[in-house]
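User: Please fill in residues for this 447-position structure.
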């Protein structure tokens, strides 16, 4: 999971989007849930007042022998009605009786199959047990504007949720008692809310994926172009489109690429000019050295002039190579190196190649072949023979050239890639040369 988080921009967008969704849903729930409960309780309270008032009128207009049937017909799974002739109990005792009546099943004779489900009875029992001691122990006299009848009525809450009680005094002095309570409302995580949240999360995730791809694609294109530029490949300018931040990044990369090309061109022209201009004075020096009478001095002068001339020619070759544009293409690296070793072996050199797997690689083949040839010839000259192999590592491809010579010191392994660097102490069998030749177009091929 952490690997996906660190590597994928889309995964981060999805996580942040889902987190925002959950937080927004939580805030909405906290704000609206209490208001939702209060609205439901207010509506239930008004309905109970209306029904209780209508029931009181019906009871007063019917014979006493029918009142029991009327009360039974009016009872529902969430409301109970009964008449008390011995006066009105105090609030605490009435509340206990109300919960007891609500927990009892409806009469089966009058309503076949109608009963209080077990889970509802358990819920009512819990509400009765958990009724807050802070609930009022006194009845509340209803105001005339809150009660539809002219006769007095008293009200109380049964619990902190939906439980309510109402007592109305009838014309004959008896009290009509009404207890109302609904089972606890379903929590926020219902099947519908879960489905809605899941669909919202899926929709936002899809949008986040497209948004992340829209941002990641230009960045990926920039990374590929930067890698190609680092390898010395010729690349077309990046499209300067999209949002301002991405567009400015592409513009900056294109400007950097143009500056780098100008810098390389100027350096190449400078090297070519220096190498060309040195030819004339070197020729003049060689002619003058021929007239030196001291043979020992003359040989030293000619040797120095020859060394300078060799470096000059190498400079011109280096400049010509830099000015030559070779397209990058995919090749079989093992086949390229093997053919080079076969050519040198046919010339009589002690060169061996270890057959390896086919390895595809995008490079400038001529420049890479020239760099490998320089390395192999250097190994033959100073190490008697060359053993060459190509191996694929986890993140790199290695062309290994080994010989029996003294090797390259650890501190000089990076310097051998610079033009004309020589390790004279480790190559003391012969003098001369202009380094390993890794700068001739191959330095840009380093991974």
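Assistant: Residues filled in for all 447 positions:
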């Amino acid at each position: 999971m952490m690997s996906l988080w660190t590597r994928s921009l889309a995964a981060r967008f999805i996580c942040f989007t889902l987190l925002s969704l959950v937080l927004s849903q939580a805030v909405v729930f906290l704000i609206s849930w209490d208001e939702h409960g209060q609205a439901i309780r207010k509506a239930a309270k008004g309905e109970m007042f209306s029904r209780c008032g209508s029931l009181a009128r019906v009871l007063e207009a019917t014979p006493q022998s029918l009142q029991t049937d009327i009360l039974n017909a009016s009872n529902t799974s969430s409301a109970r009605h009964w008449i008390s002739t011995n006066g009105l109990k105090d609030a605490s005792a009435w509340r206990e009786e109300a919960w007891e009546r609500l927990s009892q099943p409806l009469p089966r004779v009058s309503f076949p199959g109608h009963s209080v489900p077990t889970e509802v009875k358990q819920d009512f029992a819990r509400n009765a047990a958990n009724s807050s001691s802070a609930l009022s122990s006194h009845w509340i006299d209803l105001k005339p504007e809150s009660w539809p009848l002219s006769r007095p009525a008293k009200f109380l809450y049964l619990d902190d949720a939906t439980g309510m009680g109402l007592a109305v005094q009838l014309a004959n002095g008896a009290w009509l008692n009404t207890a109302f309570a609904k089972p606890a409302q379903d929590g926020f995580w219902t099947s519908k809310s879960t489905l809605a949240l899941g669909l919202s999360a899926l929709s936002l995730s899809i949008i986040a994926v497209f948004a992340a791809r829209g941002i990641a694609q230009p960045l990926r294109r920039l990374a590929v172009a930067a890698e190609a530029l680092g390898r010395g490949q010729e690349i077309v300018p990046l499209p300067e489109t999209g949002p301002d931040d991405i567009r400015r990044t592409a513009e900056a990369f294109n400007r950097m690429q143009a500056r780098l090309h100008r810098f390389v061109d100027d350096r190449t022209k400078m090297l070519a000019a220096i190498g060309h201009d040195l030819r004339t004075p070197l020729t003049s020096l060689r002619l003058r050295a021929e007239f030196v009478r001291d043979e020992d001095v003359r040989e030293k002068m000619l040797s120095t002039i020859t060394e300078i001339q060799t470096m000059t020619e190498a400079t011109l070759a280096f400049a010509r190579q830099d000015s030559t544009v070779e397209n990058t293409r995919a090749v079989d690296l093992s086949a390229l190196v093997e053919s080079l070793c076969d050519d040198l072996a046919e010339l009589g050199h002690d060169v061996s190649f270890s057959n390896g797997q086919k390895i595809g690689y995008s490079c400038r083949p001529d420049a890479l072949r020239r760099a490998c040839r320089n390395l192999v010839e250097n190994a033959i000259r100073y190490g008697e023979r060359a053993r060459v192999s190509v191996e694929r590592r986890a993140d790199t491809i290695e062309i290994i050239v080994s010989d029996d010579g003294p090797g390259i010191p650890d501190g000089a392994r990076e310097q051998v890639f610079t033009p004309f660097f020589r390790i004279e102490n480790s190559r003391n069998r012969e003098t001369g040369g202009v380094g390993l030749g890794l700068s001739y177009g191959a330095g840009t091929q380093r991974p």
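For context: Residues 9-60 form the longest helix (52 residues).
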